[in-house]
Every structure is written in structure tokens, then in C-alpha cells.
Amino acid sequence: MIEKLPPEVWSLILEWVGLTEDFNFSQRLCNDTYSHRPLIRGEREAYTTLNSLSRASRRLHALSTPELYRTLIVDDYSDPLRLLTTLSQSPYLRGLVKELHLHLDITEQPRFQKVNRQRKKLFIAASSGLELPPETQSGISRGLASKIIDNAEDATLAFWLALMPKLRALSLSVPRTPFLTAGLFSERNFGKRFPLLEEMRMEPGNRGDYRNPQVAIGFFEDIFSLPSIKTLRFHHVLWKKPITWEDYLLPDISCKIENLQLVAVDINYAALDTLLSRCHNLCVLNCDLLVSAQGFDCGRLGDILRAHGETLEVLDLQFRTEIPGVKEVEELLFGRIGSLRSLPRLAELIGPLHALIGFDETKIGSKREFFDPLGPLPKSEKPCLRLADVLPDSLETMQFTVLLTGKDWEDELRRVTEYFPADFKCKGGDSLVVTDPTTNPPLTGLSMGEQTGSRIFQWVWSYVKENEQYDDYEEEGS
User: Fold this and answer.
1) Disulfide engineering: 193 pairs with which of 15, 127, 189, 217, CB 3.0-4.6 Å?
2) What is the 3-class SS of the chain, one letter each residue?
3) Per the domain annotation, does 459 fall within a domain?
């Protein structure tokens, strides 16, 4: 009977082991809260159980194989050499891989040189079927034989990627000098390599404790031109050209990106302006920008958004700094983003309220003088803007972080609500609904009622104090 397994029974088996027929990691590859280690621990048990079941019969094995190889999680906790051996010897299994989570630190693997020799043998045996350019093929072969860690790591990752050109989603830890790895995305390989790749998540390798953890985006400029790429997430990527470390400006290319996430990215105004000007179909923008000691002008960011944000539907703005002695990144911000009413499709807005409408004179003021001889950053001499003057009519959800500086929370709330759009009506009355922040956890929740027609607007207030943040989401219908 088991050889004639009905599809519905197979679905129940997948559900029992913790998987579903449409299970994949692609939606999580570009998630801010995504952490591959907990995910691996949770899902590996399900795959292990499914692998054990697949040995019960030929039918189960045939059904299980596409599931087991559709999504590959390769990191230091797995047995990458064994998996590499299996894939290099089986074009059929390589063709099943749709999503690859590749986070390797080959220096942590035992018998480093011996493992490299084994990788080289596997590559030589498989290279004839990989259709690699001669220079790339010889480069990987030399790198796998190299005693230089950077070269060996680059060649190893390039070998992995060369095996699976039909990927749809890729999460990748990038080596410090990824010449071979980046070369696989080059224009000369288009049509043969990664024609189906839609989502890519990139972060530095695991050796950031004693080396610069940032990777120059200029290595990977060709990924912006991939024919199917729609979602890109960069974490701790330096927006520079390799070798020269000049500011990187994206060339005038045809770019189909719809979802762009820049997390802890060091990018200047001109580079950001050029990047957004190339993304004509951009719907979701998540900017978690790394602010330097020179500070950040929110006004220039506002100019960039107004110039290139006509297609944006979701805008998430955050700022961070890694400067020793700076406790709050707000110490480095000045100016204000200003009006976003020229963004006709914007439905969701997340970010610091003070960066949007301006800084009050009672706020951070001259904190910078304590750690920088240049003195305090300039603050806007203009009063804070009213939210009614900056929010577009298309907005449905707002989530703002409000900077508290020791003032009583009621005073802070009263000051902010003065700038709230006057034509907004609160559900059940004309005043704002405030949840007592003395509850556990402390928070302030504001839910807005309908403004026009049947549209329901939601205000999500984030209460931030002493580096702790709590969010209150009150569901509203329409």
C-alpha cells in the first residue's frame, strides 16, 4: 500500500514532520529578524525525520528527495564536505536545489588543508559539466589548492554556487575578497548562471572579530542586473568600490528590484540617490543606515525620497552608529525629512518621528561636544512640522519611535499629539485613546479611526526608554 501513497497522505506526512508542501525559506531570507542559526536548529530536526522516513520504501524516497534538496542549509554545524560530494556527483540533485543558505567559515573546519585537497578533487571531477569560463574554472582550481585562507574561502564558495545556477533564493555569507564568488554573477555568465534568482541576502563572513567585517558592494554590482532579481538585502555592506574604496555609484542599468533592504549599510547621499534612481519599480524600502561621526542630514534624505519614491508602498527608516561613546544615534542626526505627500502610494511608514518632523530645542542639543572637538551638530532653527503637513493621504499604518529625554511621558505625548493631523478622528470619540504606560510592559497605544469613507487608520506608538522598546498593535477593521 505504501508504494501507492496518495498525495493527501504525503501532505499529512510533511505536516507531521514539521514541513509543508510549499515550505521554503525565501520569505525569511530578507527578514530583519531572520537569524539562520535558530532557524537551522528548528528545521534540521524536521529534515532529519523526513530523511529517516524516506528509507522505508522507494515511493517515500522518490517523494522525499525533492523536499530534502529543494532548500539547502549549509553552515559550520552541517557536514558541508559530504553534501558537496553528493551534489558534485549528481546533476539531478543539483537541479532540485531552489533555495540555498550558504554560511561557511572554512577556517573553523578541522584538517583545513586536507579538506581543501578533497574539494579540489571534487571540483576537477565535476568541472566539465559546470560550463564555467576558463579563467573562472582555473581560478577556483588554484584557490582550492591555496594555503592563503582568503583565496581558499573564495574558491570554496564559488564552487558551491557554480553547482547550482538555477537558484531562486540565496542567503550568502561573503568572504573578505570575493573575486571568484562575485565573478559568477558577471554579465558574461547571464543566461547560464542564476537566470531565476529572485531573492538574495548578503552579509559579511564570520571572521569579523579580527578583520574588517564589511564587504565592498562594488564586488557584486552585476547582481543588480540579474534578469529575475526582485529582492535584495545587504547587511553591513560598505557602499564602496573594491581595491580603491571610492564611493560606489550604481551605473545606469535596467533594474527590476521591488524590495530593497539596507541594514547597517555605510552609504553616502550621492550613492543612495543614484541607487534609488535606478530602482524604478521599488515598492518596499528598508533603510537602516550606519551614521558616521560627521552626522547625518535628514533633510537630504527627504530630498532623495521625494525625488525617487513615487512607487514606494512601504518605507522603514532606522539609524544606527558604531562610534564608541555614542549612546544614542540621535546625537548624530540633524535636519528633518519633511513632507512625504509626494509619495502617492505610500501605505506604511516606520521610523523615528523626530527625523521626520524635526528636532525640538529641548532634545539632544549639544551632546556631541562631549566626544567630538568639533562641537554640537547643527539643529534646525525651524519649529517641528505638523504631521498633517507631511503624511500622504494614502497612508494606512504608521509606526514611530519617539525620543524621550527624561521628560514626563505625558508632556512628551502632549507635545507630539499637537502635530497630529487635525482631521483624523479617533474611534469612539474626538480624543486620542491612551493606554497607561505604567502597565507591564510600559507602552502607549494610539488607534486612529476613519478619516474618509471606510478607511481605518492605525497609529502604532513605540515607547522607547533606556534602550528598551515595546510595541502595541491594536487590530482595527475596515
Assistant:
1) 189
2) CHHHCCHHHHHHHHHHHCCCCCCCCHHHHCCCCCCHHHHHHHHHHHHHHHHHHHHHCHHHHHHHHHHHHHEEEEECCCCHHHHHHHHHCCHHHHHHCCEEEEECCHHHCCCHHHHHHHHHHHHHHHHHHCCCCHHHHHHHHHHHCCCCHHHHHHHHHHHHHHHCCCCCEEEEEECCCCHHHHHCCCHHHCCCCCCCCCEEEEEECCCCCCCCCCEEHHHHHHHHHCCCCCEEEEECEECECCCCCCECCCCCCCCCCCEEEEEEEECCHHHHHHHHHHCCCCCEEEEEEECCCCCEEHHHHHHHHHHHCCCCCEEEEEEECCCCCCCCHHHHEECCCCCCCCCCCCCEEEEEHHHHHCCCCCCCCCHHHHCCCCCCCCCCCCCCCCHHHCCCCCCCEEEEEEECCCCCHHHHHHHHHCCCCCCCCECCECCCCCCCCCCCCCCCCECECECCCCCECEEEEEEEECCEEEECCCCCCC
3) no
- Give the Cα separation of 65 and 62 in Å (integer): 6
Contact (CB, 8 A) for 292 and 323: yes
The three cell numbers locating residue 47: 529534515
Confirm whether 309 is domain-assigned. Answer: no
Q: How much of the chain, in percent, has pLDDT values that exceed 90?
A: 24
Provide the pLDDT for residue 93. Answer: 84
Q: Rounded to whole angstroms, what are the CA distances from 4 to 12, 142, 340? A: 15, 50, 60
Report the C-alpha gap between 390 and 243 in whole angstroms.
42
Phi-psi region of 285 (alpha: psi -120 to 50; beta: other; left: phi over 0): beta
- Joined grid coordinates for residue 470: 515595546
Question: According to the model, what pLDDT value does residue 384 have?
Answer: 74
> Closest by alpha carbon to 459, among 451, 470, 447?
447
> What is the predicted pLDDT for the residue at 282?
96
Over the stretch 167-193, which tens digit does the pLDDT of each residue have?
999 999 888 889 999 999 986 666 678
Q: Answer for the pair 227, 207: CB distance below 8 angstroms, yes or no.
A: no
Domain count, the chain: 1
User: Are 266 and 235 in contact, with CB atoms under 8 Å apart?
Assistant: no
pTM of structure: 0.77
Q: What is the pLDDT of residues 207-240, one digit of tens each?
A: 444 344 578 999 999 999 999 999 999 988 889 9
How many other CB atoms sit within 10 Å of the CB of residue 203? 21
71: containing domain? 1-204
As given in the structure block, the three cell numbers for residue 427 are 474611534
Q: Is residue 453 part of a domain?
A: no
Q: How far apart are the first and last CA of the chain?
A: 51
CA 409 to chain CA centroid, Å, is: 33
